[in-house]
Amino acid sequence: MERKFSDIHCTQCGAPAKYNIIKHKYLCEYCDGKVEVGEAVAQKQGFRSLQQDKIQQGAKAYHLMSASCSGCGSTIVFEEGEAVQNCAFCGRSLVRKDYMSSQEMPELVVPFRITQKEALGCLEDWCRLNSSKREAKSLKAHMDALTGCYLPYELIRGPVSSRVGRMDSSRTYECRGFVDNVFVNCSNQLDNLLLDGMEPYELEELMEFDFSYVAGQRVKVKDIDSKELQKRVENEVSVSYSPVVEKTLETKAIDVKTDSEFVVRMPVLLPVYYISAGDTVAAVNGQTGKVSVRAEKKSYHYFLPWWLKAILSTILICGISFGAFRLFGWETWDSLYFSGILALFFMIVTLALFSDTVQNSFRVEAIPKIFTSKTGSKERVGKELVDSSNSMEKATTPPVFFETLGGVLQPVKLRFTSPLRTAKTIFLSTFVMFLPVIVALFLNGFDFARLELGGSAVWFCIAIPTIPIYILKFARVELYEHPWIYIISENGTEKRYKEKSGIKVDKDLIKTILKALIVPPISLGVWFGIASFAAMCYLTAFGFD
After folding, report:
1. How far is C-alpha 155 from the geometric centre of its chain's CA atoms?
2. Of the candidates 73, 69, 68, 70, which has an alpha carbon nearest to the alpha carbon of residue 99?
3. Are 48 and 62 in contact (CB under 8 A)?
4. Which residues contact 46 (CB under 8 A, 6 or more apart)?
5. Pairwise CA distance, residues 139 & 149, whole Å
6. Cβ atoms of 362 and 279 closer than 8 Å
7. Paired strand residues for 266
8. Alpha-carbon Rg for the chain in angstroms
9. pLDDT tens digits, the chain, 545 residues: what are they?
10. Under 8 Å between Cβ of 273 and 147
11. DSSP string computed for 188-209
């Protein structure tokens, strides 16, 4: 049985135990043993302590040097005889000194699989396939700057939990998941997006650290504190879960807060070939040969406040309306007049539509685009490096949502919109739109010939702008505040949860209604509204004669 360093092992039989999201435990498939999440963390802490002792003993056989960069502040470790003049990450000068702290070396390492010459070949292939890009031309001029280096990462594996919610809703949901072998960069100066672009790594070659792997290679020392690392871990989880949460909550306007208390974190060195020469920055995965290149020109993303989005949308819609009126032969002033009337209506609707992103403020973010090679992992056949047939993708375990039902926390699936709920909303909106007409038909014995729709003109003027706002805002919010909940059983089947039915008397609502009908001056307006509605129904039923 293959044992992997990132595995959690059953305390009874020693076999790898798999994490069960619903039970919040590691379960052994061989002897049904259970490992608590706290035990799993302690299990790996014991391994790390033993491995650190080995590293300190192994360090005595090697005389290493370190160099601190005067520009970006990074520290590089290398063998005593190697000539290192400039920083591989920013090009500045280096200050050399003896390297004394073996404790900075991680317990695990993924060795280099491809040579520097082969990494250059991968870069040249990328440049040939992307010859029209300015980055390809720049890389060709700086190929000699490619440097091999082990970079510090932490291997993250274990259970996580998140509180998620829509920005336009006050309700939050708990979801739990499992982070499976995610690498988090521990370098302050390096571009996270660039390094993410060259991942993933194959864990089959993960080894216990030994200084023999470092021979002839440079090592960058971890330079972020534990607080920043924790923040990066939780951000990595939040980003990986966002697509699933967005799909479940049916919006991109989400808020995700992640807790990674029970993940196993293991420091590891990963092999990278790196180029940093002015605006030219690229990385090659030292194990798989995947290329990642940062665009020299930044892409700018503009974030607009919700009210400005509403104004711009209204202008666009009115412009389209004006063009349509003119297309059908209307005069210019008539087209402007009716487009202006529609502008008021559309402004109200778009303000309601975009008000679910009230937390947005105007800002501009410069995000560099990352180009990556399209080929998969490289493997060695004899002495030749060829494309592997195995496709590598970052694995993300879908999170499971939990709700407290009947005092018990249970795994659930949430469903918001559905054909039945959509049909119900459309039916209620149509019913309200034509309510005076419906009442009028009952009054005149369903005599459609006597109907006078002009009697409900005031009602239609109120309903036409109000109903779209209700559908876009209040009905939608109500929908997301009260999802349909399906309980997930241990065998994977789903059953819809329904609260116990019964007549519930809302005393506060009854008091509010009675107050509106009896207590002036509100009651005067209420009774005037009732009388006006009754008059509209009568006029619609029997006309103005």
Report:
1. 20
2. 68
3. no
4. none
5. 18
6. no
7. 155
8. 33
9. 344 667 788 888 888 888 888 888 888 888 888 888 888 877 776 666 666 666 666 555 666 777 777 767 777 777 665 656 677 777 666 666 655 555 567 888 888 888 889 899 889 989 998 888 888 888 888 888 888 888 989 888 888 888 888 776 778 888 888 887 788 888 887 888 888 888 888 888 888 887 777 767 788 888 888 788 888 888 877 777 778 888 888 777 778 888 878 888 888 899 999 888 778 889 999 988 899 998 887 776 666 777 787 888 888 888 888 888 888 788 888 888 888 877 877 787 777 667 655 455 666 666 778 888 876 677 766 667 777 666 556 666 778 889 888 888 888 988 887 788 888 888 888 888 889 999 999 998 888 888 888 888 888 877 777 777 666 666 666 677 788 888 888 777 888 888 766 556 667 778 888 888 888 888 888 888 889 889 989 988 888 76
10. yes
11. SSS-HHHHHHT----GGG-EE-
Phi-psi region of 413 (alpha: psi -120 to 50; beta: other; left: phi over 0): beta
Identify which of 53, 246, 70 has the alpha carbon closest to the alpha carbon of residue 167.
246
* Cα–Cα distance measured from residue 314 to residue 397, given in angstroms and rounded to the nearest whole number: 41
| Maximal C-alpha separation, the chain | 110
According to DSSP, the residues that pair with 403 across neighbouring strands are 410
Using DSSP's 3-state secondary structure scheme, residue 484 falls into strand
User: How many residues would you count in the chain?
Assistant: 545
**238-240-246-248 Cα dihedral, nearest 10 degrees:** -100
User: What single letter denotes the amino acid at residue 465?
Assistant: P
Structure tokens at 140: 């060709």
26 closest CA partner among 267, 262, 268: 262
Query: Coil, strand or helix: which one is 346?
Result: helix
